[in-house]
Design goal:
By secondary structure, the chain is of the alpha+beta class. It contains nine helices and 18 strands.
């Protein structure tokens, strides 16, 4: 299906952004590939849309082809799962719980499509898709062929991947996972908030269905489960990633925090780096839940979510994001980086 001058805002969780010159909706892998080839042959820009949960689209819209991937497919063979890129991620997770399989239960309620999960290496509550993805099937625009990339070739890292690093090359078609039959139990709990909820130590397992329900409850309490009636959920989820600091950066940050008699969160990260909390930084820099008096504000439930209160423009949202980024830099010397993909705009 093809539309001209098509509104994009309704296709995003922020409900922001101008129209696309052309919108194509693809229901099969062949339709996806045909649309990509047509755009590439015409030399026009291509924007791939899934659930629109991780996008900030400029008010001017998109001057090329927006490709909405609406493919379907949920195939379970024992503990091996294959998802079509257009499958609704939250629904797919719920089906794995119904099947009694662990591996993605702590990623419950995350909006968006399955095809977006490897791009961002989606993660929450101590779990990442990189831990269970075995292969990603994608259309390689450079080679003009369908390729299957094993986990090791995807270059997964914190909220990053090969697909995010080279966004003009790959269009994800299918994602394959290796789940676990743990006799109705979850994977080991890695996140302190979840462990506290269940009264267990980290690395312990809990009931799989209860883990799924608990995460949905925790996310809903932070406005991170979509609800059209609740403007706190009109967001792109966490707007900033948690900063990962090298030893020199961390020492400088720690000195500023100590000077203000603050104890900053710190978590070990690879290569001697230290991860700290973006939410903590935002709050301690003076931006509390609900901050803002305009049409774009921080969520009243979570400082990491920038929200559209119903009448915002993308520029309203970006003005707030820049104010927060600059305020955190001034207070702590740490540069916040946006997590959503920017289309036609930048911070």
């Amino acid at each position: 299906m093809e539309e001209l001058d098509a509104p994009l805002a309704p296709l995003t969780t922020l409900r922001l952004g101008g129209p696309a010159r052309r919108l194509v909706t693809a229901h099969t892998d062949d339709e996806v590939i045909a649309a990509v080839r047509a755009a590439d042959a015409a030399g026009e820009p291509l924007l791939v849309l899934g659930g629109g949960s991780n996008l900030v689209i400029g008010d001017a819209g998109f001057p090329g082809t927006a490709l909405r991937i609406a493919t379907t497919g949920f195939a379970l063979d024992g503990t091996a799962l294959e998802l079509a890129a257009g499958e609704v991620w939250a629904d797919a997770v719920a089906r794995t719980i119904e099947a009694g399989l662990a591996g993605v239960e702590f990623l419950a309620g995350i909006p968006g499509s399955a095809g977006a999960t490897p791009v961002q290496n989606v993660g929450a509550y101590g779990q990442e898709v990189a831990q269970t993805i075995t292969e990603v099937v994608a259309y390689d625009r450079r080679a003009d062929e369908v390729v299957t990339l094993p986990n090791a070739a995807c270059a997964f890292s914190y909220r990053h991947s090969r697909f995010k690093a080279d966004p003009e090359r790959y269009v994800v078609l299918r994602v394959r996972f290796a789940l676990e039959d743990a006799a109705g139990r979850s994977t080991p709990v890695r996140y302190a908030e979840v462990a506290k909820h269940f009264g267990v130590a980290t690395d312990e397992r809990v009931d799989l269905r209860e883990a799924h329900a608990a995460v949905l409850g925790l996310r809903a309490g932070k406005g991170m489960v979509l609800d059209p009636a609740d403007h706190d959920t009109w967001s792109a989820g966490s707007f900033f990633t948690n900063p990962v600091l090298d030893p020199e950066q961390y020492a400088a940050f720690l000195a500023l925090a100590t000077e203000r008699e603050l104890t900053a969160p710190a978590y070990p990260a690879p290569d001697g780096h230290t991860k700290t909390s973006a939410a903590w930084l935002i709050d301690r820099a003076g931006f509390a839940k609900g901050y803002g008096s305009g049409p774009a504000t921080l969520s009243g439930k979570h400082t990491l979510a920038l929200t559209n209160r119903g009448a915002a423009t993308t520029e309203d949202l970006l003005a707030l994001a820049r104010e927060i980024r600059d305020g955190v830099r001034a207070a702590f010397g740490v540069e916040l980086v946006n997590e959503p993909v920017m289309v036609g705009v930048s911070l």
